[in-house]
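Retro notes - structure team

What went well: the batch runner handled both jobs without manual restarts.
What didn't: labels got mixed up in the shared folder, which is why I'm recording both outputs here explicitly, each with its sequence directly above its tokens.

Job 1
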Amino acid sequence: MFQQNRVQHILVAHDLSPDADLALRRAAQLAHQTGARISLLYVLDERASAADEQDARALLQERLQRNGLSHIEPWIRRGPPVEEILTQAQGLEADLLVLGQHHRGSSQGFAGTTLERIMLESPAPLLLATAPADTPYKRAMAALDFSRCATRAMQYAWELLGDGAQLRALHVHEMAEVHGPDYEGLALQQELFDQLIEDIQSQLPRTGAQLSHSLLQGERSNCLEAAISDLQPQLLALGSHSRGELSSALLGSLARQFLDHPPCDILIAR
């Protein structure tokens, strides 16, 4: 039986960049939709002065006010950004950690291995927000293998969808396309996948969203790219295995591609 999840506390890690503003905007939209509360975290350099901290607080409060969150007092901590974000996510018992898309131009930005480490070590599922959050998510995709973390990512994605939204669960039966179709293997995978979806669906709360699922056979990169092109999801849910690699059974070498060039907002769960 799969455990039902619930997003009640959203933590936004901000770095005063426009990308982080998008993350806060999405978090505010999700909080309004789900009734979750929000905390906003900024990690200050240990060498920063009191004036720097005062300036950062003023900027954060302005951004909170802009998103209708003027009642929130930002959390400002000093230290290494990764360690502080992970510590606060655990200490505040966040159900969802939201970051903006990484950018390499900022000295404190969430770039490269820093972003990966947060994703892989975060105690809470992580939402990488990349697009303006003018409206709730309407189209989502969950890349499913048969791992617990991929299932958990799909469950959390479902929690972020509202009435009328669509979530498509996708599984890839991987094989080299030059070998031609494997009808016997595909039939077995379809039977197993149908049962997995039935088990997951029985545990999902009623949100007004609609669930569909599809199985593709071929090379995983081609299948996943084709599915994304077809559905044009606003949210892509992925599982992250223990020390690491993003859902290797489905994504494999595409992990870096999704981190560097996300096609939409990405939700990752361990």
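Job 2
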Amino acid sequence: MRAHWLYVLPLPLLEAGLLVSWSSGFVGARFAIDYAPALLVVFWRFAVLTLLLLPFVCKTLVNTPFDTLIIQVGIGLLAMAGYMAGVILGIALGVPAGLAALFADLLPVGMALISALFLGERIACRVWLGLFVGLAGMLWVMHSVLSVGNAPLWAYGLPVAGMLSLAVATLWQKRIPAKHAMPLLPGLWVQCCVASVVFALAGGSQGSLAPLPSAGFVLSVLWTATLPTFGGYGLYWLCLRRSSATRVATVLYLSPPLTMLWAWAMFDEPLSWHLAAGMAVSLVGIWLVSRAENHTLQHKTGSA
């Protein structure tokens, strides 16, 4: 059987698409806040995808074992509902968007710490070096745009909690036994469905869930449903199947500077030399992680 074209595209090309789609989520949130409450947009973001994808996945869902569906429900709660809630609620409480993005993109470090502390995995020194070089580049980029903010102290932990939620989901997804694996699209549908229920409850507790009759609201929903969700999460899980969790998460180190490029193009926000320098340092970190993992893979292959 011929492999799907997405599975034969070069991995760097998929990672580039992941970066564009993932960073578009912060831009979409920046755009949407001007037109509607954040939780309302997020609810309709997942609800629209749940409805649109259903005809394409219903046959697979009917034939999927219940325990496999439950696993995807758990991953959806962590990767979509948990991650999005942490970031969005933090921003709503006054955490600066740049600082929330910085915390969220600490994903590689969070995954490495969880793997080392709770899963007993040994992280190679070269991988740690690449992680922290990438982190240094990201911090350098964000240094000139961060502000202290006026949120209560505990609110700053929400984006961190969202990041850790996605980290746990990523490690869980990577360790799913083959008998419980789902095709990409049906798995994405289950996760979107779960997230839509969670945000329906959260948004409904604060007011009506009725869509707003404005072009800005419609565009906000369509933007966040397509690029960040369908493109971002879809490519995230696809890259995870083709590579290691550490490499995929490390690639996201380039998300904050790329988000700044989006903001410059769409909202005329200023750029600085910090952007170019930080992106260069982050690229070095990604190269170090990729090189270390390729070396490990070749060593395992040679020992087999």
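One thing worth noting from job 2: Residues 273-303 form the longest helix (31 residues).
We'll revisit the folder naming next retro.
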